[in-house]
Structures are given as structure tokens and as C-alpha cells.
Amino acid sequence: MPAEPLILHLETATNVCSVAISQGENMLATRESVEDRSHGTLLTVFVKEVLKETGKNADQLDAVAISKGPGSYTGLRIGVSVAKGIAYAQNIPVIGILTLQSMTLTALENHEVRQLQQEHPGLLFSPMIDARRMEVFSAIYNARMKETTPVSAVIVEENSFEKILDQHHIVFFGNGADKIRDTIRHENAHFIKGIEPTSKQMIPLALAAFHKQQFEDTAYFEPFYLKDFIATIPRKKVF
Questions:
Q1: In the structure, what pLDDT confidence band is assigned to residue 13 with cuts at 50, 70 and 90?
Q2: Which of 61, 76, 136, 230 could form a disulfide with 176 if both were Cys (CB 3.0 to 4.6 A apart)?
Q3: Pick the residue with more confidence: 179 or 45?
Q4: DSSP letter assigned to residue 13
Q5: pLDDT at 194 > cutoff 80
Q6: Closest CA to 70 of 156, 158, 135, 166
């Protein structure tokens, strides 16, 4: 029986710089920092450290998984560049993981969220990443990880999400949710702190993609910057 794939996981979509290495479903080692703007200095260091800790060499890797966004332009660019460099050097595939999806997987394992699920069957999940001013990158998923509202950039106002909140309880989380919790005051809106993207939660998603041979085209792969979807508020004209 062939060994389970050895996969390196890189998460750089937000201020979190996170690296993990896994064999099948098992995480072997991880490194993580929440120091802002640390990706350029820490990412390759963390890669070397997890390989050394596990006694593995880069040429033993079967794939490299990268959190592909949406998120910080600089963070995504650094992460994808490192992932591509490793993939080319070792002739292994790149697996792209949607950042908001892995955040939702983290939320599903959160104790407070599980309590909310018991209280509100049909609870929906809205991971949010801070974009700028009152803008967030977000999507809405159900408990089966099915996307019910597609990934988009939203300028949050008091009545944002009102129609869906009238029909469903939604838990909002991520650094984007932290800044809008005083804006969205609907009784069906719930906010949970402390849920951020992490390479550890990429493992089951990357493993499933590996077995399905769902790989990125390494040469043409670009992060999901969401540029085409970013909405802006026109400046008022002053006469």
C-alpha cells in the first residue's frame, strides 16, 4: 500500500504567517507567527524548520499547498512565489486552497460555534478578511462546507446581509468580522473572535484535492486577489 502523501502547507493570506507539513491526515510539524508583515522574513525560515523537525527533505514532498486568497496582496504574492519555487525545484504539483474555506473549517471545530449550531440548526458561516476601510472579503457557507453566497468584496453598512439574516442565523468570524461587529446589529448575527487562517486547517482540504488530482497550473497560477470584484465608493464632487 503506497504511503500517504507528504504535503507542505503555506498560509500567508492575512497577517498570519503559518507553515505546516503533513503525512496523510496527520500533521507532523507546524510554525506560526501573527507578527504583521513578517511573511517575507519568516516564511522560508518556517519551511526549513518544519522539514528539519520532521527529518524530511524537500525532495520527499509530494505536493505544496498554498492558501490562494482572497486576502493581503503582498502576503498572497509572497506565499505563491515560495510555493511555485518549491514546486518547480522539486517537480511537484501546487494545490490552491481558498482561504475563506479553510477558515470555515476552523470555525466548525470551534467550541463556541458548536454551541451556536446546537441552539440554531441551519446556522450559516461567514468568514471575513479585512480589506480596507469598511470593506471585507467574504462568503457564506453551510455546515457541509457548501458555498451558499459566493466570494465577494463587500462594503459593510448597517443593512448589509439583512435579507439573509432575516431568514438564517449567521456566525461571522475573521479579522474582517472584528471591525464590523458594531455595524451589523441584527439579532440573528453572531460574532466569534479568534478564528484566523492557519496552515493546519489546510491539511484535510489539500489531502482531498491531492487524491482528486485537483492541481493548479503552476506556470500560470496566480493568487485570488479578487481585484475584479473590489467595489469602491465614488468620491463626492466638491464644487
A1: very high
A2: 136
A3: 45
A4: S
A5: yes
A6: 135
Q: What's the pTM value of the predicted model, to 2 decimals?
A: 0.91
Nine cell digits for residue 2: 503506497
CA atoms within 13 Å, Cβ hemisphere of 157: 3
**Among 70, 65, 99, CA closest to 207:** 65
Q: Hey, which residues does 124 pair with through a beta bridge?
A: 170
Residue with cell 453551510: 142
pLDDT at 28: 98
**What's 182's DSSP letter?**
T
Contacts of 105 (CB under 8 A, 6+ apart): 145, 201, 204, 205
| Radius of gyration, CA atoms only, the chain | 18
Can you list the domains of the chain with their CATH numbers? 6-99+197-228 (3.30.420.40), 111-192 (3.30.420)
Task: For 84-136, write each residue's pLDDT tens digit.
Answer: 999 999 999 999 999 999 999 999 999 999 999 999 999 999 999 999 888 99
Phi, psi of 63 (to 5 degrees): -165, 160
Distance CA 157, CA 150 (A): 19
